# Entry
Amino acid sequence: MVNALVIRKGTSPAKRGKMLRAAQYVRMSTDYQRYSIQNQAAAIAAFAQQRNLTIVRTYMDEGRSGLRIRGRPGLIELIDDVRSGQADFDQVLVYDVSRWGRFQDVDESAHYEFICKENGIKVAYCAEQFDNDGSLLSSIVKNIKRVMAAEYSRELSVKVHTGQCRVASLGFRVGGPLTFGLRRELVGENRQPKGRLDKGERKSLQTDRVRLALGSQEEAAVIRWIFHQFVVEEKADAAIARELNQSKVANQHGRPWTDGMIHNILRNENYVGNIVYNRTSRRLGQKLVNNPLDGWVRSDQVVDAIIDPGLFTRARNVMENRYISISEEEMLLRLRLLLKRQGKLTFDIINRAACVPSASSYVKHFGSLRNALALIGYDSPRDCDWIDRRRHWSEVLSAHAAQIVEALNRAKHVRAQVDARIPVIILNGRIKIHFQVARQSKKRGSNHAAAWRVHRRRGQSGLLVVLRLDEVNRTIEDYLILRSVRPTQPYLYFSARGRDHGAVRAETIDDLVAILKRQLNKIGALRLGNVTKPGVLWTTRSMPDR
# Structure
């Protein structure tokens, strides 16, 4: 009995506590009964009970494809926890190999499993007939299973695409967003109408089909007006969009009209009654490709026409004549002639000029407009130092985010991680800390005070950390911490005092970490399971005055 209380040499109490703890990962791409979340969880629970394991954490991806890790927050969180050492378990239980993923490159599937193994965490497949113990037999079978899972997706993709092409050839709607003035109508097996489908709604029976139907008469009138303005009045796409916005004509998205929306309407054959499918394709999440004409699936005169075919053909001819293929030498020659006439060159001057490609065309061919201007010997008077150093400041923001994450993760019950796409910290899965750089504006005179501005971004919630730069915008002068607010103006301005918008000033990054910890502690963000509503952090009065 005495020996039972002795911890033997080489045995860590923390490690012994983790040995009977496991996490489960469940994924369901579609609502098939076999792979439902409940069925997977039941099989995993039975597996855990047989081995006296306690499931302490669940990572879940519902309605997520297994072709890639992107778009699977559950698996991403699992890998991040394993890498950061925050995992309080030593096994991950998965229903089978296909639930881990149907990666088209089987080495990618093995890579994520190796990350777990490298950090001392075993991945177990509960419904497979082999034990994932690293033996020769299990390694061979597991690799075969991964190849089979990937091949299943490839075969299913071919079958689904073939079926969709056949449905489109019968005049029915297959996927894709609708353009202005069109609706989706649900029809039964005998093509009897069963009502219209709103945005986000889907058919419930496999025998039902979806066909296109016209919207309101007001929308049809707007479409006819757009074609008339483009063909008869010879107005540009941007001018048409501007007039619609000035007249407050709503589109299908509830957003302002753009020249791209107008262009899509002018080239859409749905308005003359035709359906064209398979013009582009993206097989298994690969790069979008344009298919050849003989691969297109056409079905003519299946929708009530809004536009006369003759008018539609004239609009198409106008668009084709606007695009003229010229060499890069000719592009630079026309740019030199424009410079000689105007004396200077800007985006607006180039875009307004006739017989000169758009500024975006020069960017596409030469990498940037500055490169094209340099080739004709023109030095723009615009200060482009900020553009040249954009990558540098992006790396600085990422380094700051990583340093702050490391400091926050030292606190108990904290799980902070950096979003790899943008410099933002996600704290305990809820609160976000964003980072931006604020340039100091040039002083107009000796009597003008220093000022900084930062571009407001959409979709920010939580905290915003602003790195204010010095007078020459080369080094960091100080830091401001404030609540992210919904943008009403394009820029956020700060004075030298630094108390604008309820901000708190920090001189060093150590001060910044201390202020963040103090404020996050006030709202309970550093205590797991006790977090306020996302975006509701503190009021201006509760901010410390520094």
User: Anything to note?
Assistant: The first strand starts at residue 21 and ends at 28.
